[in-house]
Amino acid sequence: MTDIFLIFDNSLYQGLQYGLLALSLFISLRLLDFPDLTIEGSFAAGAATTFACVHYFGLGVISLFVATVVGFLAGMCTGMLHTRLRIGKLLSGIIVAVGLYSINFRIMGAQANGYILPGENPASVLRIANAAVAGWFTGNNPARPLYVYPVSNAILLIGIALIILAIFVFLRSERGSVLRFTRAENKLFLESIGQDYAGNLVVGLGMANAVAALAGGLVAFANGSASLTMGFGIILVALVAVVLGEAIVQVFHRELTDLWPVLLAPIFGAFAYYLILRTVQELNTAWQIHHGAPDPTFQLQYFQTDVKLLSVAILVVISAFRRRQVGGVYLPERL
Predict the structure, then answer these.
(1) pLDDT digits (tens, 9 = 90+) for 308-322
(2) pTM for the whole thing?
């Protein structure tokens, strides 16, 4: 029973952090029809900014707000490259993401990796609370430590609920309703009613990357470190979470047109994704114990590097299944 709780708790902890990253991809990909690769750079920029603000200026939790602003500016740059300079969508995102690599290096004080000391990290207080709860489960047995995050999960759930509520309220407003129609095929319609397509797209991409940078800041606090390379390939995690979350929501809510379910889908998808990864890792550990710790190079086992392959497999299976089941339901597949 403890193992099941451990898998669930750890998966929820990671899923809540990366669920915000998936939400950022949902905003750019599903709402704006913009396959934005900027989030790979803005995610790392959020972590780098959080590290710099905490390590050099002692801003604590306020660093998350600074990181959010940095992400918003990065998204705006991508939008302006596309709308003002007529650079393609994918290329605009790549340009900003690559440029952010050098900028992040400077933000972190000319170093590739930065470590947030326990005394600087606001998450240290949560770690103490988490350890207290873990001690209640294990009887404070040092020989059997239990790494659980119930207090952190509760704080993350409340924070993410407030973020989703704020996004929901904004998208239901007059300005947000226009933003939801900011797609290339609606450009002439928006201009005919006096709306600025380019301006709305820039704001939308800024909002998406602000959420991605916030996710990066949370991960930096959770890991106690930031790295220039932490954003490389991270868009795959977000993409799998979005697709998996939409598949989960469709089980209970057939139409993917209502706002509440689609905003929650990335969070559900991220949790399910890490639940799958954690379960596979536990099964592999049990298999190794059963076979007496086989040769580490034995190919018929799960390696940590197989995460990418497993992610791709999940994405392909869910996408293939959904295409056969969706039928006439409108579901944008612009990947």
Answers:
(1) 888 999 888 888 877
(2) 0.90
* CA pseudo-torsion sign 34, 35, 41, 46: positive
In whole angstroms, give the CA distance from residue 240 to residue 26. 11
CA 264 – CA 137 distance, rounded (Å): 31
Give me the mean pLDDT over the 242-267 stretch.
84
- What pairs with residue 113 in β-bridges? 227
Compute how many other C-beta atoms are within 10 angstroms of the C-beta atom of residue 88: 11
Which pLDDT band holds residue 81 (cuts at 50, 70, 90)? Answer: very high
Question: Cβ–Cβ contacts within 10 Å for residue 151, how many?
Answer: 17
CB of 222 closer than 8 Å to CB of 15: no
CA distance 46 to 67: 5
Residue pair 127/116 in contact (Cβ under 8 Å)? The answer is no
Alpha helices in the chain (DSSP H): 2-26, 39-57, 62-83, 89-107, 123-138, 150-172, 174-180, 187-192, 197-223, 234-252, 259-290, 307-326
Tokens standing for residue 293: 């710790």
Q: What is the CA radius of gyration of the chain?
A: 21
Residue in the structure block whose two tokens are 């924070």: 159
Helix (H, G, I), strand (E, B) or coil at 304: helix
At a CB cut-off of 8 Å and minimum separation 6, what does 302 contact? 280, 281, 283, 284
Contact (Cβ atoms closer than 8 angstroms) between residue 8 and residue 259: no
Which residues face 114 on adjacent strands? 226
CA gap 206, 217 in Å, rounded = 16
